[in-house]
Amino acid sequence: MVTLTQRLLDIGVFEVAVSDTVGVAHPGQVKAMLPQLLEAIPAKSVALHFHDTCGMALANVLAALEFGLTTFDASAGDLGGCPYAPRATGNLATEDLVYMLNGLGIETGIDVDAVSDAALALAPVLGHALPSRYTQARPAR
Questions:
Q1: Active-site entry in 18, 25, 63, 82
Q2: Among 41, 52, 69, 114, whose CB has the most other CB atoms within 10 angstroms?
Q3: Which residue has the higher pLDDT, 25 or 22?
């Protein structure tokens, strides 16, 4: 992975997203992989893409923050999936990520309730509620 990532940067790619497309990564794996990658690649050139199949997406982001990474893919409401893993869930929910980052004092400039509103608006169109924990908890706040 490190060699391929370096080759991509060498040909002009400005950022490479390292992805857990089926959502089975856990923080121990993230902490084991990042030192190897960051030895060869600057943190500003790395994005991480986590799915939440095993409920570890936020924990994985938290682990990656320790290494100075600041770019994470996410989607409103946890939308998404993987065609190669039919039982895999969606991407990390943007509103869950923003809520956590805000709680850590990391300013994102993103209105978490506006993202949650977008997820709520999508649910009837899709015909089902979206699994974002932040959005599901909003009525309880």
A1: 82
A2: 52
A3: 25
